[in-house]
Specification:
Length: 414
C-alpha cells in the first residue's frame, strides 16, 4: 500500500467507550518472582496482587489451578488482601475450580482462611513480608493488571532462587497464565472520509525469542457487520490463526488461518508490518475509519468482541468511488477446495454444502455459462458438463479452462 494514504489519520487513544472488548492470554506479568523458600514448609504460597486500571471493570476473577487432580488447594490458605483505600471485593476471586470445570464457589463462606478479616497492606514489600513471616516462604508472587481469568500451575522448584525478589516484566510461565483486558486501543479516521466503513486491526508484536506460532481467536460481532466492517489480523508469516466465530465480517489475515465452520486451512496474504502501512491498507480497501488498532504481544488465545458501529451513508456523487475487490473468504474457500475434476470428456464440480457455510446465502453454483447450474441436494452441489459445453475452452497439453461461480441471494455473485 501507499503509505501516503495514511496521512491525516493520526492514531490516538480511544477515550470514549471503546468499540471493542479485547483480552489476551499471557504469562508475562508487570512484576513477579519465584523462590524455593517454601520448600520445607509443607505447603505452597502463591501471592497474587491484583490491580485495576479502570474503576468499572468487572470484579469477578475466574481462578483455576493445575494439575487437575490436586485437591482444593485453598483450605486453610486463601487470604484476602486489601490495599489501603480500596474495596475488599476488588481482590476477591469469585470462582475457583480445577481447570477442567467449575468445582468450587469461592466466597467468604467457603474460604477457610486462618485470618477471616482481609489483610490491609500499603505496598508490595509489606505484602511479601507479611506472607513470608506468616507462612515461612513464598513459592511465587505475581502482580496482575486487569485480569479476566487466572490459571495457576501448582508445584515447587528447588532450583528457584532462595528469595522472591520481584522483577519488572517477569516471565511467570512456570506457574501462571492469565487472560488480561487490553486498554491501549487507538483509532482515527481519514479527514476526507465520506463514509464510516470501519476497520479493526490486531497487530501481534512477536519477540524474537517467542515460540508462539498458533493463536486461537474467539470473535463475536453484530449481525449487521458484513460489508461495513473488516478485521485485519497481522502477525508473522509463519503464524496460524484459528478463528472461532459466527460473525459475517470481511477478513484480511497474514500467515494462514482456519475458520471453525471450514475443515481446512486457508491461505492468508502478505500484510505490511508497520502501523502506518496497515492503516494505508485499510484505506486502500475503502475502509476510511480505523475503529480500533490494537498492538498486543503474541498470545496463544485472544478474545475479541466487536460492538455495534453506526454507519453513515455515503452521499451520492456523479463519480462513484472505485472499490478494489477484496481477496475475501468466498474466493479463498473455492481456491482451497478446488472442487473441479476433469476426465477426457467431462468437467465435474462437486462441493459439500457444509463447506460453504461461512459464505452466506449461496443459492447456486455455475460455470462461466451461467445457464449451466449445479444440481443441489441436501448435502452437495454437483455439476457435470461435456468439455464442449458451458463455456469451457480447450487449451494445449490437455488443459480445459472454465470458471466456478457462485450465485448469492439478491443476485450477487462471488
Amino acid at each position: 500500500p501507499d503509505p501516503g494514504r495514511a496521512e491525516g489519520c493520526d492514531l490516538q487513544p480511544v477515550t470514549a467507550e471503546p468499540p471493542i472488548t479485547l483480552s489476551y492470554a499471557t504469562s508475562t506479568v508487570p512484576r513477579g518472582c519465584v523462590s524455593s523458600s517454601s520448600m520445607d514448609t509443607g505447603h505452597e504460597v502463591h501471592v497474587l496482587s491484583v490491580k485495576w486500571s479502570e474503576p468499572m471493570l468487572p470484579r469477578q476473577i475466574f481462578l483455576c489451578w493445575a494439575p487437575q487432580d490436586t485437591p482444593f488447594p485453598w483450605e486453610g490458605g486463601l487470604v484476602l488482601a486489601q490495599e489501603l483505600g480500596r474495596a475488599t471485593e476488588t481482590c476477591l476471586p469469585m470462582l475457583g475450580w480445577p481447570c477442567r470445570g467449575v468445582d468450587a464457589q469461592l466466597s467468604s463462606e467457603t474460604i477457610r482462611a486462618p485470618n477471616p478479616e482481609p489483610l490491609v497492606v500499603s505496598n508490595e514489600g509489606q505484602l511479601l513480608a507479611w506472607a513470608l513471616s506468616n507462612y515461612g516462604g513464598i513459592t511465587s508472587y505475581s502482580e496482575l493488571q486487569d485480569p479476566r481469568s487466572i490459571q495457576l500451575h501448582l508445584g515447587e522448584d528447588a532450583s528457584s532462587p532462595p528469595e522472591c525478589i520481584p522483577q519488572e516484566h517477569f516471565n511467570a510461565i512456570q506457574h501462571l497464565e492469565t487472560e488480561v483486558f487490553f486498554h491501549g486501543v487507538k483509532g482515527c479516521s481519514r479527514s476526507d472520509a465520506q463514509s464510516t466503513r470501519a476497520a479493526h486491526i490486531i497487530h501481534l508484536q512477536s519477540e524474537s525469542s517467542s515460540s508462539i506460532t498458533e493463536v486461537n481467536l474467539s470473535l463475536s460481532c453484530p449481525q449487521n457487520s458484513a460489508g461495513n466492517q473488516i478485521l485485519i489480523l497481522q502477525s508473522k508469516a509463519n503464524f496460524t490463526w484459528y478463528l472461532s466465530s459466527k460473525c459475517s465480517i470481511q477478513l484480511m489475515v497474514s500467515g494462514s488461518y482456519k475458520v471453525s465452520s471450514v475443515p481446512m486451512l486457508l491461505p492468508g496474504m502478505l500484510l505490511p508490518d508497520t502501523e502506518q502501512d496497515l492503516i494505508a491498507k485499510a484505506f486502500e480497501k475503502n475502509y476510511s475509519v480505523i475503529a480500533s488498532y490494537s498492538a498486543i504481544p503474541a498470545s496463544t488465545h485472544i478474545s475479541l468482541e466487536i460492538r455495534g458501529h453506526e454507519m453513515v451513508e455515503t452521499p451520492v456523487t456523479t463519480t462513484p468511488l472505485a472499490i478494489t475487490q477484496l481477496p475475501d473468504l468466498p474466493h479463498q474457500v473455492l481456491l482451497t477446495l478446488k472442487p473441479w475434476k476433469c476426465t477426457d470428456e467431462t468437467m465435474e464440480i462437486i462441493i459439500i454444502r457444509s463447506y460453504l457455510e461461512p459464505i452466506k446465502d449461496v443459492v447456486n453454483i455455475t460455470l462461466r455459462d451461467i445457464s449451466c447450474q449445479a444440481e443441489k441436494n441436501a448435502t452437495h452441489f454437483m455439476l457435470k458438463s461435456p468439455l464442449s459445453h458451458c463455456g469451457t475452452s480447450l487449451e494445449g497439453r490437455g488443459y480445459a479452462n472454465n470458471e466456478v461461480r457462485g450465485g448469492l441471494a439478491g443476485s450477487a455473485a462471488l
